[in-house]
Design a protein that fits this description.
With about 325 residues, the chain is of the alpha+beta class. It folds into 2 domains: about 170 residues, Triger factor/SurA peptide-binding fold (Orthogonal Bundle), CATH 1.10.4030; about 100 residues, Chitinase A, domain 3 (Roll), CATH 3.10.50. Helix content is about 50%, strand content about 15%. Strands 5-4-7-6 form a 4-stranded antiparallel β-sheet. Strands 2-1-9 form a 3-stranded antiparallel β-sheet. The protein has a two-stranded antiparallel ribbon with strand order 3-8. The chain is globular.
């Protein structure tokens, strides 16, 4: 919260999803599969195709950089984590092989659209600098985009199109969750975070003289949301620090807050929209329940499908690499 991110990653994962992935990795107790003597540069073999040890090391380093503080440093826990990470690489390799069998590939239009979306507003030279900081060439990154699009197409055909939600299932779920459709009051707010009260006052002065909050936030704010003009999105009471709630829920839209001091630094807030508490409409309830049930069914169907690919594959592990 207190440091400004000046080199955005070409892809980004939401925090909640990253934490969920970490929990799955740390808690996974998968049964041992056949292992054998493999070269040190090979972490596993899937249908005679190697998964290089360097891919596992890269995955493990990325995991530690994001979730290292959540995991135990013990050898047993480290081996469990590396095994779970290797299983994810194996699942991906099984899907890549399935893509090749089915000859499923994205169109040039789909590739161009995905590339443009991931690049955002960055120019080619700027984007290549971001990739270089991440240790990737433009060609390597594009290959990854094509692969991911191919895997999405495979999952859509092999899994997601086989799953549906009936009206009866929706009604049954609603009957068990009758009180889940009340929405609390929410505000959408933006913030500017700086180190000192004087810096906050200077930022406020610029805004009062006519500069947009968005522009000043991008220029001086130390918070990662500075990239989006300080936009915090919509949130209800209790989702942000108490000091935030006390200010933003008392501000009318469009009015700049006084300087607010927290443990993070000194803030300015601007409420850009407000939603009063309400009950979801019938259409919104139907769509929300359908989304929840469909996600649950898809997850189960995906796991069942992956296990079917595994059961018919020749998979060999290098236990020495896992236990490093």
């Amino acid at each position: 919260m207190t440091s400004k991110n000046t080199s955005p990653s070409p892809t980004r994962t939401p925090t909640a999803l990253r934490l969920h992935a970490a929990a799955l990795l740390l808690l996974a107790l998968l049964p041992s599969l056949p292992s054998c003597s493999l070269p040190d540069d090979t972490a596993a073999v899937v249908n005679n195709r190697k998964i290089p040890s360097v891919d596992l090391e890269r995955s493990h380093e990325e995991f530690l950089s994001q979730f290292g503080e959540m995991s135990s440093p013990g050898a047993e826990e480290s081996a469990r984590t590396r095994k779970a990470l290797l299983d994810r690489l194996i699942d991906r390799e099984l899907m890549v092989q399935e893509v090749e069998k089915r000859n499923l590939h994205p169109t040039e239009t789909e590739i161009a659209g995905a590339v443009a979306k991931l690049k955002g507003g960055l120019k080619d030279a700027e984007f290549e600098t971001v990739l270089a900081d991440a240790g990737l060439s433009l060609e390597e990154w594009r290959e990854g985009v094509v692969r991911d699009l191919s895997l999405e197409k495979l999952q859509q055909i092999a899994v997601y199109e086989t799953v549906s939600v009936s009206a009866g299932e929706i009604e049954e779920y609603r009957a068990r969750h009758r009180n889940d459709y009340e929405l609390p009051e929410e505000v959408r707010a933006s913030q500017i975070l700086v180190r000192t009260r004087e810096e906050a006052r200077k930022a406020a002065g610029r805004i009062r003289k006519g500069e947009s909050f968005d522009a000043v936030a991008r220029d001086v704010s130390l918070s990662p949301d500075a990239e989006s003009g300080g936009d915090l999105g919509y949130f209800a009471r209790g989702q942000m620090p108490q000091e935030f709630d006390a200010v933003v829920f008392s501000l009318p839209p469009g009015k700049l807050s006084p300087v607010v001091e927290t443990t993070y630094g000194h803030h300015l807030f601007l409420v850009t929209d407000r939603k009063e508490d309400r009950r979801l409409s019938e259409e919104e309830i139907q769509e929300e329940v359908r989304t929840i049930l469909l996600a649950s069914k898809r997850e189960l169907a995906f796991r069942t499908w992956i296990e079917s690919l595994r059961s018919s594959a020749d998979i060999r592990y290098n236990e020495d690499v896992i236990n490093e």
